[in-house]
Amino acid sequence: MSLPSLVAVMLTALAVADGQRVLEIGTGSGYHTALLCHRLGAANVVSVDIDPDLTAAAAQRLAALDLHPRIDTGDGAAGVAGAAPFDRIIATGAAARVPAAWIEQLAPAGRIVAPFTFGGALAVLDGDGTGAVTGRLHAEQAWFMPLRAADRALSDDYPTGEDPPTGTTGVGGTDVPAAVPAEPDFRLWLRLHLPPGHLVDVVDDAGNPAGLAIHAGTARATADYTGGRARVVQDDHRLWDAVEVAHAAWLRVGRPDRTRLGITARAGGEQYAWLDDPGTGPRWPLPA
């Protein structure tokens, strides 16, 4: 079950009003579902989860409270087309990009609150009436399991092995200070500048974070800050060079926190993250 404090943050961001209909992606234990039913009435709540055991158990728990929302078993990324449109959609599984079905099933002035698989991003996206959604990232970090196996490959902190880089071009230093890779907002910024892959903490003998390993396909780079000096090892792909570039850009724009970032997505069209303004700010495409 999600942390109650994070549930409160997400439900507050959802900003439901009387009479609105909500789609919940990820039924889980049914706790979120019960809260939504209490606020809106069970007739206005639809929930979907890919695990039939979870949906069956949640339905039983809710029925014991005399709550009878619609609970479907299926792929949350597909939504529940037969019950659309929805004024609000809330997800408790992380996606690499906004599923097209969510945008298509959202009412024109609807809202989506959903976590993403990069940097603990939690987005609050509003429909614009033209088949697109846009909005900023919430200040809160939200770490959820990916919706689907395909999204896991695009997410942070799922180690693919800690073998040293092969085809090493050499060992060197870095201009990135030791404290920076551990900053959650920089890691989110970095995720937008790197190819899809993994960011994995390097730990010291006591289990404390001491650096960063980057895995993207067959490319590897590791920065180890133990011993008082930075030591960077990378292969011929030179992934750490991209970290240096991203760090310099981060400094140039004032070390932005995640609330200066946003996401715009169109069903069947482009999806991108942006800084400060979706029309004029720098942008980065979300993984296809």
UniProtKB/TrEMBL annotation:
What UniProt keywords are attached to this protein's entry?
Cytoplasm, Methyltransferase, S-adenosyl-L-methionine, Transferase
Q: Name one GO cellular component term.
A: cytoplasm
Example GO molecular function: protein-L-isoaspartate (D-aspartate) O-methyltransferase activity
**Region annotation (Disordered) ranges:** 154-175
Q: What class of enzyme is it?
A: transferase
**Family assignment?**
Belongs to the methyltransferase superfamily. L-isoaspartyl/D-aspartyl protein methyltransferase family.
Q: Return the PANTHER family for the record.
A: PROTEIN-L-ISOASPARTATE O-METHYLTRANSFERASE, PROTEIN-L-ISOASPARTATE(D-ASPARTATE) O-METHYLTRANSFERASE
Specify the protein name: Protein-L-isoaspartate O-methyltransferase
